[in-house]
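BUG: 3D viewer hangs when loading the predicted structure for this chain

Environment: internal workstation, default settings.
Expected: structure renders.
Actual: progress bar stalls at 90%.

Input used:
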Amino acid sequence: MEIRKVIPSGYCKGVVNAIRLAKKTRINHPDEPIYVLGMLVHNSFVSKELADLGIVTLDDTKKTKEELVDEIDSGIVIFTAHGISDRIREKVRNKGLSYVDASCVDVLKTQEIIRDRLKNGYDVIYFGKRNHPEAEAVLSISDRIHLVCNEEELKDLNVKNPKLFLTNQTTMSYLELKDLIEMAKEIYPQILVEKEICNATGSRQEAIMKLEDCDLLYVVGDSRSNNTRKLADIALRKGIKKVRMIQTSDEIDENDLKDVSNVYVTAGASTPPYLIDAVMDLLRAKAR
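Structure tokens produced before the viewer hung:
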């Protein structure tokens, strides 16, 4: 049994920067309360590392960002890598709280592109995941941004403005985006399109599409990570026989390793390297 790691995989620059900023904030403010407004990146092990530093992650799917800010009386707020709305930023300021913005530069770039199109009179069709923090931050910009999560929602969309612009959440599947763009151009021939799949997401997806003779692919990462799930989706669309999403090496099922010759391991952009290494080490031990 051959064990190989897909290159590239694992941490991207946005995740590395967000974690670096959070740790630097603790070093610079050793005695102050520090809160992350949502998961800094979508990985529970990263949240645990921050908790060990005394950094509290405020993450409750039943509460809005505004409600989470209401729970903070003092200290420093860290905005996650997924971006934040101007409304939340202003609310934090009005409470007299300091903040650190760990938004990924690729996310901020997409937001700026959307703002420019809105200023020029366009309505924006935004391909993203409903309730994802990156999408929520974008949708808060204007009510002229229309979220679509799939082709069916695009078909049902009824935008009267002839000036239309389509873009996307940075962590979506480039194959799904391709299909959506083709449909959008059929429905709205005049639509302008700008693909905003970030380089890290795109390169990791393309690496999976280039795999040959892969009998089993492990995708290491948190189930809440959109880019991690999209890696698994891409692999299934490619036709890889077995695709397994796992968070740690403990989830490797011996039965999956039966009658396979070539096993590959990839990981989402928010997956810590030591988790990937542990999966590789265990698989290599079993291959001996």
